[in-house]
Design brief:
Elements lengths: L1 E5 L5 H14 L2 E6 L11 E5 L6 H9 L5 E3 L3 H9 L3 E3 L5 E2 L4 H16 L12 H18 L1
Parallel strand pairs: 1-2, 1-4, 2-3, 4-5
Antiparallel strand pairs: 5-6
Helix pairs in contact: 1-5, 3-4
Length: 148
């Protein structure tokens, strides 16, 4: 299993948890972004910088994803594509996306996008809180322990 990170919007705290987990479990971690990202020196951690553009990072992840790989993303369409390719998708807030919940999440996301395009302010996501960080760490540990 490799861990792919949609790194442009991934919170720093979550990246730090991922860095520690990759080193501890000797799991390959690849961060995909369209801007420079700082990572610790480790043979298990790498980064790929792609050109800026709509879904360029997402497409890079999907092109390289293998069944059973884990993708860290808050991007619902990307999570849907990951699940369709037999990957595992985990939100930085600790929510595991699955075949059972992804279509509902996608519908809600599309509905919110429609509201915004009609001029209605829907607001963005709330700030990441301690319990969500802990939920993410717990979910990540559970996923990694199943692989070992």
């Amino acid at each position: 299993m490799k861990i792919w990170v949609d790194a442009d919007a991934c919170p720093k705290t979550i990246k730090e948890i991922l860095f520690r987990a990759a080193i501890r479990t000797k799991t390959k971690l690849i961060l995909i972004s369209n801007h420079a990202i700082s990572t610790p020196a480790s043979p298990f951690i790498s980064k790929i910088q792609v050109i800026a553009g709509f879904d360029v990072a997402d497409n890079k992840i999907i092109q390289n994803l293998e069944p059973g790989d884990l993708v860290i993303t808050a991007d619902i369409p990307l999570a849907d594509a990951v699940i369709n390719k037999s990957g595992i998708a985990l939100n930085p807030r600790g929510e595991l996306y699955s075949k059972d919940n992804i279509k509902e999440r996608l519908s809600l996301r599309n509905f919110s996008a429609d509201l915004r395009s009609s001029g209605i302010q829907t607001g963005g996501p709330s700030a990441l809180i301690k319990s969500e960080i802990q939920r993410f760490a717990n979910a990540l540990n559970l996923i990694l322990s199943k692989v070992r």
